[in-house]
Amino acid sequence: MRFSADHIVSEHGEKAPNVVYRGTLDDGRQVAVKRFNKSAWPDTRQFLEEARAVGQLRSERLANLIGCCFEGDERLLVAEFMPNETLAKHLFHWDSQPMKWAMRLRVALYLAQALEYCSSRGRALYHDLNAYRVLFDQDGNPRLSCFGLMKNSRDGKSYSTNLAFTPPEYMRTGRVTPESVVYSFGTLVLDLLSGKHIPPSHALDLIRGKNFLMLMDSCLEGHFSNDDGTELVRLASRCLQHEPRERPNAKSLVTALTSLQKETEVPSYELMNIPRGNPSSIQQLSLTPLGEACSRMDLTAIHEILDKVGYKDDEGIANELSFQMWTDQMQETLNSKKHGDSAFRGKDFTTAIDYYTQFIDGGTMISPTMFARRCLSYLMNDMPQQALGDAMQAQVISPEWSTAYYLQAAALRALGMETDAQETLKDGTLLEAKKNRRN
């Protein structure tokens, strides 16, 4: 793997401890590759565990993790590439026009939604949240970089910015907490208000002196109401409270920011005045029947195909069982499978979920097909997040099984993540074509 200074995309430069490069996969997809300092993760197991946990997250509010690599001294994270620069670029170093008020409000909301999603999935800590961590996708929508969800190193000491912007408690403990993430969110709201990177202490002095209009970006004059400005300043000051327990949580941030949104019907790329991303080339691919069914979200057709294929794709999956397991647990496990398959065949998907869950939780056998069947059962029950988790687990067990990718695409589409769904569908189609060439 070659790393060129010409391909560095992070504003922190080549000498930073963790540099981000732009790269290209074999299928032509653009990715962002974060290369860690050699000493950051000496234990590959810890690195892999962290990466796997972050990789389980999938949201249209995140620049999602695609994979990781550890070989020799290399520790790499690979994520979706966001082609339209960072919030820092659009706020502090804009060329043609400043960011519009409606777009600044949208950035704040989408960022709060990203933090709420991560918190709901057990990843409430975000390391060194700042304007360089907010990226814009091909449609101009802001996304939070997944890289900050993973510690910069095993010690978790992750604030690399000017200490004037770090939460007060971090100075005492050296640790990131959910409340310190909210504090950092408050500094980002100040960035959005002012178009500058103002130290929180200075901003709070202006707010206490009721001079909050001095905080506002002069480029926005006449483009926002005093009530909206006051409300956003009030929200920032709540986030910047000295005592962590007095700060709001991510859910309340989303609630407060939702009511402030303006021009909600206008696409982000129009508000940002940037060209819209190229449509996916998935239409040019020759889809298999399962790929086509997942593309259309035709759950009935998916069910028919999975039922017909059965368990033939489980062949070759290693299942090591002791004699004790055979005698004590196998009959119960096989009964769970039998009842689950019967319910699945009869389209009783709620019952299928229950029995398949018993089989999976039993832990005596590994079956990617079982995860695929429970995935579809979740989709039939309008539980797309659980469905996505099962499709991803099937991929972990069988990394080159196209069915796992197709079902991920269906779950992503159910979650409204159209671009990610199309890319995953493309991955599955390429894998299937590769398998057919081998055969």
UniProtKB/TrEMBL annotation:
GO terms for molecular function: ATP binding; protein serine/threonine kinase activity. One of its GO terms (biological process) is brassinosteroid mediated signaling pathway. PROSITE patterns: PROTEIN_KINASE_DOM. It catalyses: L-threonyl-[protein] + ATP = O-phospho-L-threonyl-[protein] + ADP + H(+); L-seryl-[protein] + ATP = O-phospho-L-seryl-[protein] + ADP + H(+). Keywords: ATP-binding, Cell membrane, Kinase, Lipoprotein, Membrane, Myristate, Nucleotide-binding, Serine/threonine-protein kinase, Transferase. Residues 6-260 form the Protein kinase domain. It is a lipid-anchor. InterPro entries: BSK (IPR045845), Kinase-like_dom_sf (IPR011009), Prot_kinase_dom (IPR000719), Ser-Thr/Tyr_kinase_cat_dom (IPR001245), TPR-like_helical_dom_sf (IPR011990), TPR_BSK1_C (IPR058209). It is an enzyme of class 2 (transferase). GO terms for cellular component: plasma membrane. Its EC number is 2.7.11.1. Pfam families: PK_Tyr_Ser-Thr, TPR_BSK1_C. Its main location: membrane. It is found in: Cell membrane. This is non-specific serine/threonine protein kinase.
